[in-house]
Amino acid sequence: MERRSLLKTAAFTAVAGLLAACTQMEDGNDIVDIAASNPDFSTLVTAVQAAGLVDTLKSDGPFTVFAPTNAAFAALPEGTLDMLLLPENKDKLTQILTYHVVPGAVTSDQLAGQRVTVATVEGSTVHIDGRGGKYGTGVRVNGANVTTADIIASNGVIHVIDKVLLPK
Fold first, then answer.
1. Per-residue pLDDT reduced to its tens digit, 84-108
2. What CATH number did the domain enclosing 82 receive?
3. If we measure between CA atoms, which residue out of 162, 159, 140, 161 comes closest to residue 150?
């Protein structure tokens, strides 16, 4: 009996998550709206605002954003984030943030089993490995793990990553 309740709860949770994702699309929540509504992205939202990229990420797109969490930003060397948020470093911050954005909406099922190099909005490339292997069944981007995939926005897709990507 307990197992049946557990399965019902799991099924309900999955359906609720699906409905929530559909609601986001119907409401027209764009990439910035979704990020701003999630406390795990407060640092990213602050950085996007400081770089003047809000209007760009609210535009039609579509975009694929590899979105670092607050913990990913906190793992940068001490003082790095504070330095990047200074007005005189806006160009460097913009370069780093646009390195996390790929033109087009790319979902994890399109990446599964593939290893590709993709141009970013910043102009250089990221290496995406969706083959799993020794890192499990997930997707990796330049060594960062995608911890949550396929957050659908009205203007693209967000994939949550556990590291800040730095262009070379």
1. 999 999 999 999 999 999 999 999 8
2. 2.30.180.10
3. 159
Q: What is the pLDDT of residues 57-75, one digit of tens each?
A: 999 889 999 999 999 999 9
Which pLDDT value is given to residue 7?
A: 32
CA distances from 33 to 24, 41, 52, 117 (A): 10, 11, 15, 28
Torsion of CA 161, 126, 157, 97, to 10 degrees: 70
Q: How many domains does the chain have?
A: 1
Q: What's the pLDDT at 137?
A: 58
163 in the Ramachandran plot: left (φ > 0), alpha (ψ -120 to 50) or beta?
beta
* Rounded CA separation 42/37 (Å): 9
Domain with 36 in it: 30-161
* Helical (H) or strand (E) element with 26: helix 2-27
CA 58: distance to chain centroid? Answer: 15
